[in-house]
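REQUEST FORM: STRUCTURE PREDICTION
Request ID: SP-0412
Submitted by: Lab K.M.
Chain count: 1
Length (residues): 264
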Amino acid sequence: MPKVSVIIPVYKVERYVRRCLDSVMSQTLTDWEAICVDDGSPDNSGKILDEYARRDKRIRVIHKENGGVSAARNDGIKLARGQYVHFMDSDDFIDPDYYEKMIDALVSTGADAAVSGFVTNVKYTKGLLYNRMRVVRTTFGIFKRTNALSDGYVWRYVFSRKFLSDCGISFPVGMMTMEDMDFLLRILTRMRLLVVVPDVLYHYMFNDLSLLNSRDVEKRKKMKLDYKASKKFRRTFAREHGLIWLWRMRKLQKLPYVGKFFRG
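STATUS: Completed
RESULT:
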Protein backbone atom coordinates (compact mmCIF):
# COMPACT_ATOMS: atom_id res chain seq x y z
CA MET A 1 0.00 0.00 0.00
CA PRO A 2 1.49 3.37 -1.01
CA LYS A 3 1.53 6.11 1.59
CA VAL A 4 -0.34 8.61 -0.58
CA SER A 5 -2.45 8.43 -3.73
CA VAL A 6 -2.19 11.55 -5.88
CA ILE A 7 -5.30 11.92 -8.04
CA ILE A 8 -4.72 14.14 -11.09
CA PRO A 9 -7.52 14.89 -13.60
CA VAL A 10 -5.99 15.81 -16.95
CA TYR A 11 -7.58 17.82 -19.76
CA LYS A 12 -5.83 20.06 -22.32
CA VAL A 13 -2.70 20.66 -20.26
CA GLU A 14 0.10 19.52 -22.58
CA ARG A 15 2.00 22.74 -21.76
CA TYR A 16 1.88 22.16 -18.00
CA VAL A 17 1.45 18.48 -17.12
CA ARG A 18 5.18 17.65 -17.30
CA ARG A 19 5.91 20.26 -14.63
CA CYS A 20 3.14 18.79 -12.46
CA LEU A 21 4.39 15.21 -12.75
CA ASP A 22 8.04 16.22 -12.35
CA SER A 23 7.16 17.85 -9.03
CA VAL A 24 5.51 14.63 -7.84
CA MET A 25 8.43 12.49 -9.02
CA SER A 26 10.85 14.82 -7.20
CA GLN A 27 9.23 14.33 -3.78
CA THR A 28 11.45 13.47 -0.82
CA LEU A 29 8.74 11.01 0.20
CA THR A 30 8.99 8.29 -2.44
CA ASP A 31 6.14 6.00 -1.35
CA TRP A 32 3.38 7.40 -3.55
CA GLU A 33 1.19 6.51 -6.50
CA ALA A 34 -0.14 8.98 -9.05
CA ILE A 35 -3.50 8.20 -10.64
CA CYS A 36 -3.71 10.33 -13.77
CA VAL A 37 -7.16 10.42 -15.33
CA ASP A 38 -7.03 11.51 -18.97
CA ASP A 39 -10.50 13.01 -19.31
CA GLY A 40 -10.75 12.66 -23.09
CA SER A 41 -8.14 15.35 -23.63
CA PRO A 42 -7.98 16.38 -27.33
CA ASP A 43 -4.32 17.47 -27.21
CA ASN A 44 -1.15 15.48 -26.45
CA SER A 45 -1.77 15.28 -22.69
CA GLY A 46 -2.70 11.59 -22.82
CA LYS A 47 0.47 10.70 -24.73
CA ILE A 48 2.58 12.60 -22.20
CA LEU A 49 0.91 10.67 -19.36
CA ASP A 50 1.69 7.37 -21.09
CA GLU A 51 5.30 8.48 -21.54
CA TYR A 52 5.65 9.20 -17.81
CA ALA A 53 3.93 5.93 -16.88
CA ARG A 54 6.55 4.03 -18.91
CA ARG A 55 9.27 5.87 -17.01
CA ASP A 56 7.85 5.35 -13.51
CA LYS A 57 5.68 2.41 -12.43
CA ARG A 58 4.19 4.51 -9.62
CA ILE A 59 2.25 6.46 -12.26
CA ARG A 60 -1.03 4.90 -13.39
CA VAL A 61 -2.97 6.30 -16.35
CA ILE A 62 -6.68 5.94 -17.09
CA HIS A 63 -8.00 7.11 -20.47
CA LYS A 64 -11.73 7.87 -20.58
CA GLU A 65 -14.32 9.88 -22.46
CA ASN A 66 -14.71 13.45 -21.31
CA GLY A 67 -16.94 13.64 -18.26
CA GLY A 68 -15.61 16.64 -16.35
CA VAL A 69 -13.23 17.10 -13.45
CA SER A 70 -15.66 15.78 -10.81
CA ALA A 71 -16.19 12.47 -12.60
CA ALA A 72 -12.43 12.15 -13.12
CA ARG A 73 -11.73 12.70 -9.42
CA ASN A 74 -14.45 10.25 -8.42
CA ASP A 75 -12.90 7.63 -10.73
CA GLY A 76 -9.54 8.30 -9.09
CA ILE A 77 -10.95 7.82 -5.59
CA LYS A 78 -12.26 4.38 -6.56
CA LEU A 79 -8.80 3.32 -7.70
CA ALA A 80 -6.78 4.87 -4.87
CA ARG A 81 -4.81 2.44 -2.70
CA GLY A 82 -2.89 4.90 -0.54
CA GLN A 83 -3.36 5.53 3.16
CA TYR A 84 -3.82 9.19 2.26
CA VAL A 85 -5.28 10.96 -0.78
CA HIS A 86 -4.34 14.23 -2.46
CA PHE A 87 -6.31 15.85 -5.29
CA MET A 88 -3.87 17.75 -7.51
CA ASP A 89 -4.60 19.94 -10.52
CA SER A 90 -2.54 19.06 -13.60
CA ASP A 91 -1.36 22.62 -14.28
CA ASP A 92 0.01 23.12 -10.75
CA PHE A 93 3.07 21.87 -8.85
CA ILE A 94 4.21 21.27 -5.26
CA ASP A 95 7.30 21.81 -3.11
CA PRO A 96 9.74 18.85 -3.09
CA ASP A 97 9.01 18.07 0.57
CA TYR A 98 5.24 18.59 0.30
CA TYR A 99 4.13 15.03 0.99
CA GLU A 100 6.84 14.38 3.56
CA LYS A 101 5.76 17.31 5.72
CA MET A 102 2.02 16.87 5.20
CA ILE A 103 2.04 13.17 6.01
CA ASP A 104 4.43 13.56 8.96
CA ALA A 105 1.88 15.99 10.40
CA LEU A 106 -1.00 13.60 9.72
CA VAL A 107 0.78 10.65 11.32
CA SER A 108 1.93 12.58 14.40
CA THR A 109 -1.53 14.04 15.11
CA GLY A 110 -3.88 11.35 13.79
CA ALA A 111 -5.81 14.07 11.94
CA ASP A 112 -8.44 13.39 9.29
CA ALA A 113 -6.73 15.85 6.95
CA ALA A 114 -3.80 18.24 6.68
CA VAL A 115 -4.00 21.66 5.01
CA SER A 116 -1.12 23.62 3.50
CA GLY A 117 -0.61 27.17 2.42
CA PHE A 118 -0.36 28.11 -1.23
CA VAL A 119 1.13 30.68 -3.57
CA THR A 120 -0.28 31.69 -6.92
CA ASN A 121 0.13 33.85 -9.99
CA VAL A 122 -3.65 34.00 -10.42
CA LYS A 123 -5.05 37.52 -10.49
CA TYR A 124 -8.35 36.79 -8.74
CA THR A 125 -7.01 35.22 -5.54
CA LYS A 126 -4.28 35.79 -2.94
CA GLY A 127 -1.78 33.35 -1.58
CA LEU A 128 -1.99 32.05 1.96
CA LEU A 129 0.96 30.98 4.12
CA TYR A 130 0.87 29.42 7.59
CA ASN A 131 3.61 30.32 10.04
CA ARG A 132 3.10 27.54 12.61
CA MET A 133 1.49 24.17 13.05
CA ARG A 134 -1.95 24.03 14.63
CA VAL A 135 -4.33 21.21 15.46
CA VAL A 136 -7.94 22.36 15.06
CA ARG A 137 -10.85 20.44 16.56
CA THR A 138 -13.96 22.59 16.06
CA THR A 139 -15.95 23.28 12.91
CA PHE A 140 -15.72 27.02 13.45
CA GLY A 141 -11.96 26.78 14.02
CA ILE A 142 -11.47 24.68 10.90
CA PHE A 143 -13.34 27.14 8.70
CA LYS A 144 -11.57 30.11 10.26
CA ARG A 145 -8.09 28.64 9.76
CA THR A 146 -8.72 27.40 6.23
CA ASN A 147 -10.85 30.32 5.01
CA ALA A 148 -12.79 27.59 3.20
CA LEU A 149 -15.91 29.69 2.58
CA SER A 150 -13.79 31.70 0.14
CA ASP A 151 -10.75 29.50 -0.63
CA GLY A 152 -12.61 26.28 -1.38
CA TYR A 153 -9.64 24.65 -3.06
CA VAL A 154 -9.52 20.91 -2.48
CA TRP A 155 -5.90 20.67 -3.65
CA ARG A 156 -4.72 22.36 -0.42
CA TYR A 157 -5.62 19.24 1.58
CA VAL A 158 -4.23 15.75 2.04
CA PHE A 159 -7.00 13.50 3.37
CA SER A 160 -7.04 10.22 5.22
CA ARG A 161 -8.49 7.75 2.70
CA LYS A 162 -10.41 6.02 5.51
CA PHE A 163 -11.96 9.36 6.45
CA LEU A 164 -13.05 9.97 2.85
CA SER A 165 -14.49 6.47 2.65
CA ASP A 166 -16.38 6.86 5.93
CA CYS A 167 -17.86 10.18 4.74
CA GLY A 168 -19.06 8.65 1.49
CA ILE A 169 -19.12 12.06 -0.23
CA SER A 170 -18.26 12.34 -3.91
CA PHE A 171 -17.62 15.31 -6.18
CA PRO A 172 -20.83 16.67 -7.78
CA VAL A 173 -20.95 15.65 -11.44
CA GLY A 174 -22.44 18.26 -13.77
CA MET A 175 -20.94 21.40 -12.23
CA MET A 176 -18.44 23.25 -14.46
CA THR A 177 -17.00 25.29 -11.62
CA MET A 178 -17.09 25.47 -7.78
CA GLU A 179 -17.37 21.66 -7.63
CA ASP A 180 -14.43 21.42 -5.22
CA MET A 181 -16.06 24.02 -2.95
CA ASP A 182 -19.24 21.91 -2.75
CA PHE A 183 -17.23 18.77 -1.94
CA LEU A 184 -14.93 20.47 0.55
CA LEU A 185 -17.59 22.18 2.66
CA ARG A 186 -19.49 18.93 3.12
CA ILE A 187 -16.27 17.13 4.07
CA LEU A 188 -15.01 19.74 6.56
CA THR A 189 -18.15 19.55 8.68
CA ARG A 190 -17.51 15.82 9.19
CA MET A 191 -13.94 16.41 10.29
CA ARG A 192 -12.91 15.44 13.80
CA LEU A 193 -9.45 16.97 13.63
CA LEU A 194 -7.50 19.05 11.09
CA VAL A 195 -3.78 19.83 11.19
CA VAL A 196 -2.43 23.07 9.69
CA VAL A 197 1.05 22.55 8.20
CA PRO A 198 3.52 25.47 7.87
CA ASP A 199 6.62 25.81 5.67
CA VAL A 200 5.28 23.86 2.72
CA LEU A 201 3.47 25.14 -0.34
CA TYR A 202 1.14 24.19 -3.14
CA HIS A 203 1.72 26.28 -6.28
CA TYR A 204 -1.58 27.21 -7.92
CA MET A 205 -0.79 28.43 -11.43
CA PHE A 206 -2.70 30.43 -14.02
CA ASN A 207 -3.59 28.42 -17.14
CA ASP A 208 -4.94 30.50 -20.02
CA LEU A 209 -6.51 27.38 -21.55
CA SER A 210 -8.37 26.32 -18.42
CA LEU A 211 -12.14 26.13 -18.17
CA LEU A 212 -12.21 29.29 -16.04
CA ASN A 213 -10.69 31.19 -18.96
CA SER A 214 -12.92 29.70 -21.64
CA ARG A 215 -14.39 32.11 -24.18
CA ASP A 216 -17.18 29.71 -25.07
CA VAL A 217 -20.40 31.65 -24.45
CA GLU A 218 -22.45 28.65 -23.31
CA LYS A 219 -19.71 27.42 -20.98
CA ARG A 220 -19.32 30.85 -19.43
CA LYS A 221 -23.08 31.07 -18.95
CA LYS A 222 -23.08 27.68 -17.19
CA MET A 223 -20.15 28.72 -14.99
CA LYS A 224 -21.99 31.88 -13.92
CA LEU A 225 -25.02 29.81 -12.96
CA ASP A 226 -22.81 27.38 -11.01
CA TYR A 227 -21.16 30.27 -9.17
CA LYS A 228 -24.51 31.84 -8.33
CA ALA A 229 -25.81 28.50 -7.02
CA SER A 230 -22.60 28.01 -5.03
CA LYS A 231 -22.90 31.44 -3.42
CA LYS A 232 -26.46 30.66 -2.32
CA PHE A 233 -25.35 27.24 -1.03
CA ARG A 234 -22.44 28.74 0.94
CA ARG A 235 -24.63 31.41 2.54
CA THR A 236 -27.20 28.83 3.64
CA PHE A 237 -24.43 26.45 4.72
CA ALA A 238 -22.79 29.15 6.85
CA ARG A 239 -26.09 29.99 8.54
CA GLU A 240 -26.86 26.33 9.29
CA HIS A 241 -23.42 25.59 10.74
CA GLY A 242 -22.90 28.69 12.87
CA LEU A 243 -20.43 30.25 10.41
CA ILE A 244 -22.40 33.30 9.36
CA TRP A 245 -19.84 35.68 10.91
CA LEU A 246 -17.11 34.15 8.74
CA TRP A 247 -19.39 34.40 5.70
CA ARG A 248 -19.99 38.10 6.30
CA MET A 249 -16.28 38.76 6.72
CA ARG A 250 -15.23 36.80 3.63
CA LYS A 251 -15.00 39.87 1.34
CA LEU A 252 -12.50 41.61 3.58
CA GLN A 253 -10.07 38.68 3.47
CA LYS A 254 -8.18 40.35 6.34
CA LEU A 255 -9.51 39.11 9.64
CA PRO A 256 -8.17 35.52 9.41
CA TYR A 257 -4.75 36.76 8.20
CA VAL A 258 -1.68 38.05 9.96
CA GLY A 259 -0.32 40.70 7.64
CA LYS A 260 -1.19 40.41 3.96
CA PHE A 261 -0.47 36.75 3.31
CA PHE A 262 0.39 35.12 6.62
CA ARG A 263 -1.78 33.44 9.20
CA GLY A 264 -0.78 32.08 12.58
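NOTES: The chain is about 35% helix and 20% strand.
Reviewed by: T.R.
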